[in-house]
Specification:
By secondary structure, the chain is mainly beta. The protein has helices at residues 2-27, 60-63, 356-359, 451-455; strands spanning 65-66, 73-89, 103-116, 120-132, 144-158, 164-173, 195-204, 207-216, 232-241, 249-264, 267-284, 287-300, 303-320, 324-335, 345-346, 370-380, 385-395, 403-404, 410-412, 421-433, 438-449, 462-472.
């Protein structure tokens, strides 16, 4: 406990110093427009700083370091830290080790980005995570002392602009597709997810087409010991088209997935799964919509796989002035579960690498054998304050399948209860943005256990409270 307190005090002092630094950094920006930091830092492009008049931020000397007289070859450095205190009462509804006073998570990322003209680029990012004070010790995604998170090279084979190009990317990288429901970098936990992968990227005006093969990187807690293995492999083709003459964008994709130890209520076995999917999304006037449909087939040991998912997010935004807004939205999702554990089929949906924050900061239940409704209200008061309130209602899709974690592990078997309702989960998140570099979040979640959990105890209601201070440069 003493170490936890010392680390919290040190982090508060360090972040206070960062606030003072970034206050001066933002003071020099005036009214100039700059791209916001991207959560996937490799997507940022600081070549615009070739113009000295646009170097208005205190950190610009390290964001753009020209290595040639023309300025087309340059280095860019950046990083971030997230200081996260988390308290969970009745974690996993009271099953397993419990923590009665919270714990402290630290994450540090530092990266370098080398651009050599328009055709060659190398991006490298290191990651470190520390957990302090958790009873039962760190979970698999809580701690990694220091490791290589990303290291990939881009070679542009054709095209001179971003709108028309053919690029080959190879190395360790974060992979993001669509709205990141099923393929993302895992931002919610302390440690992010990357893949050892090769990818071809074709951009042609409104078309973005990607073909890839990858293996997820497994987190280990030591130094430079993260690695991928042939125990799990993914591959696929993902296309996005944005130039239709109506407010409609279309994603079409195929994803393949093989893992040696797929775990479901039916048991554990070798799994080969193919997914066909489409996403329809867009905006018109104040409306926005995002619908996704997936069908899966393949083999699970001697069983045939037949599974599906339907996911939606529809909202309307009211605006007052340039900043203030109110968005009302409803998410409604269905992820199939297994209909009969004794037949020759597996109907449980596999969500690949799901976006936990799509569900909530707690994400107590995962995206297999689930139906949910999720109304949300998001209010942006000004450039500093914003808040989101939501309530999630969760049911099992199939009464003969179990309850799964966000990582795909089986939490409760479905053989002991015929109840469908899993629980109700209200959540409130308040965010204060100090400036473009620093923001602070406060999060509260309550999970009211439903009849299925009460019939398969333990079934304690979960209370989650957390604070998250993030600094980026």
């Amino acid at each position: 406990m003493k170490i936890l307190i010392l680390r919290v005090v040190f982090s508060v002092l360090a972040c206070s110093c960062l606030l003072l630094i970034t206050a001066y950094a933002d003071a020099g920006e005036g009214n100039s427009e700059r791209p916001a930091f991207n959560q996937s830092r490799y997507k940022e492009d600081y070549s615009f700083l070739k113009d000295p008049k646009k170097r208005t931020d205190w950190f610009d000397p390290v964001k753009y370091i020209p290595l040639t007289q023309s300025g087309d070859t340059f280095l860019s450095f950046g990083g971030e830290t997230r200081q996260h205190f988390e308290y969970i009462d009745n974690n996993n509804w009271g099953q397993g080790p419990q923590d009665d006073n919270g714990y402290y998570l630290q994450r540090y990322l530092i990266h370098g980005d080398l651009h050599v003209g328009q055709r060659f680029r190398v991006f490298t990012q290191f990651m470190s995570g520390i957990e302090t004070g958790r009873n039962g010790g760190p979970r698999g995604v809580d701690e990694d002392r220091f490791d290589l998170h990303q290291a990939f090279a881009d070679v542009r084979l054709l095209g001179e602009t971003q709108k028309k190009s053919l690029t080959v990317r190879a190395g360790r990288q974060e992979i993001i597709f669509g709205s990141r429901r099923f393929f993302n970098y895992r931002e919610r936990p302390n440690m992010r997810l990357s893949h050892d992968a090769a990818m071809g990227i074709l951009k042609w005006e409104g078309l973005d087409l990607r073909v890839f093969g990858a293996r997820p990187v497994q987190i280990n807690t030591g130094y430079f010991d993260d690695k991928s293995t042939d125990a799990e492999t993914v591959w696929g083709l993902y296309g996005v088209y944005k130039s239709l003459p109506v407010p409609l964008n279309v994603d079409l994709y195929y994803l393949g997935h093989h893992r040696q130890a797929g775990q479901y209520d039916q048991g554990t076995a070798d799994e080969l799964r193919h997914t066909l999917g489409t996403r329809l999304w867009g905006k018109f006037e104040g409306w926005d919509y995002n619908f996704e449909f997936l069908y899966q087939f393949g083999d699970f040991n001697t069983r045939n796989i037949k599974a599906y998912a339907l996911a939606s997010d529809t909202g309307y935004t009211f605006r007052w002035g340039e900043v203030r807004s109110l968005r009302l939205s409803l998410r409604a999702d269905l992820y199939s579960g297994d209909d009969n554990p004794n037949d020759g089929e597996l109907n449980s949906f596999n969500p690949f690498f799901p976006k936990g924050k799509h569900i909530s900061q707690l994400a107590a239940a995962g995206l297999t054998n689930q139906r949910n409704l999720h109304p949300r209200v998001t209010f942006v008061l000004d450039r500093h304050w914003s808040a989101t309130a939501s309530t999630q209602f969760i049911w099992r899709d199939s009464l003969t399948d179990g309850l799964y974690s966000i990582g795909g592990g089986l939490l409760r078997t479905g053989a002991l209860s015929r109840a469908r309702y899993v629980g109700t989960q209200p959540e409130l998140e308040v965010k204060y943005t100090f400036n473009s570099h620093v923001d602070l979040k406060g999060i509260f979640v309550y999970f009211d256990a439903g009849e299925f959990l009460r019939q398969t105890p333990p079934a304690g209601d979960i209370t989650y409270a957390g604070t998250m201070l993030t600094f980026r440069f």
